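Reopening this one. Same input as before:
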Amino acid sequence: MNSNFFGIMDISGSGLTAERFRMDIIADNIANAETTRTPEGGPYKRKVPIFAERVENSIANYLSEAKAAGVRVIGIHEDNSPPRLVYDPTNPDADANGYVKMPNVNVVREMVDMISAQRAYEANISVISSARSMVRSALDIGRA
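Same output, byte for byte:
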């Protein structure tokens, strides 16, 4: 096996990890779409993962140009858009006018993001499967 095969696996593996993390964040957002009280105070704030390019750290790359080697999570951003106001004077979290500050989570948007993350996850699995298939074919040629 040459390093290109392992590089493909590393890049796709990092993509799988990143998309899985993204799906976990989306699931948290959906689970807290109705949470009006948090330990920080106020309604839950939508969270978004921040990804960055992962650069290969090797002596060869230090001497030449650094090469991309996948993706990594560098943080989680809180969406600071205003909360939704819902009129519900019976809610204990209602203000003097009867409005409750609800999380800034749009479940439809979260579902679209979940589908996008799922497709990206599946694409990375497809890359890994294709690479494995090519290696198997190359080994079969070597045996013949």
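So the earlier flakiness isn't reproducible anymore. For the record, Helices lie at 3-31, 59-63, 107-143.
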